[in-house]
Amino acid sequence: MKDKLFAFPKESSTSYVELLSDLLGPFGEAAVCLRFRSNLTRGYSLFSLSTRDGHNTFLLYYYPGTRNQIQLWVDHTYQDYKLHGNDFTQWTSICASWSSSIWAVWIDGTPYKEDGVPNVKISGVPVIIIGQKQTSHGGGFKASESFVGEITDINMWDKALTDENMMDYFAANEMSGNVINWNALNYNLIGEVKKRPYVDPYPCVPL
């Protein structure tokens, strides 16, 4: 999937991408990074992982407008991150990292951090969905929570990322996840999602 993206052309409860992994947990910490852009003015899901234990097992959800915050869920527990004037109509890089000591969301290199929450884990076989928010294991989609726009460079790790790891990702240093690896992606495309070329708007130019 290098130099490709997933395009979600319209609001839907039937279009999504299922990401597949051989590494099924359980996880005591994790991190997800991706790049996206969207013109939506309502809330939408960026990354949804569920297990049979519950649908908000690892969820990254954005609330726009005056609320303007990212909500990170892990094992039915969540933290809110109030943002500062972000324009998601332009390509944006976002990472979410979770461990017992700290939960962090990074947006285009800007960190938002909260203290960790004890007794949180991901257990059970995960279903990972892009484009929809799961309200049941692998389903329960609502058009009003769907993603419309473009997503690329999705990676997931079974560990938290350090600040240095985050900056490597934002600098496009080819970081690849060991749970989800964008450059060797296994996935199922469902509905009207399209795979298209991705052109980096900020290419690195050698000196």
Automatic annotation (TrEMBL):
UniProt keyword annotation of Secreted present: no
Keywords for the protein's UniProt record, in alphabetical order: Calcium, Metal-binding
Domain Pentraxin (PTX): 2-201
Keyword Kinase on entry: no
InterPro entries: ConA-like_dom_sf, Pentraxin_domain, PTX_dom
GO CC annotation: extracellular region
Cofactor: Ca(2+)
Cell compartment(s), UniProt: Secreted
Coiled-coil ranges per UniProt: none
Cofactor note: Binds 2 calcium ions per subunit.
GO molecular function: metal ion binding
Gene3D superfamilies in the record: 2.60.120.200
Subunit structure comment from the entry: Homopentamer. Pentaxin (or pentraxin) have a discoid arrangement of 5 non-covalently bound subunits.
Similarity comment: family membership: Belongs to the pentraxin family.
Protein's recorded name: Pentraxin family member
Naturally occurring in which organism (per UniProt): Eleutherodactylus coqui
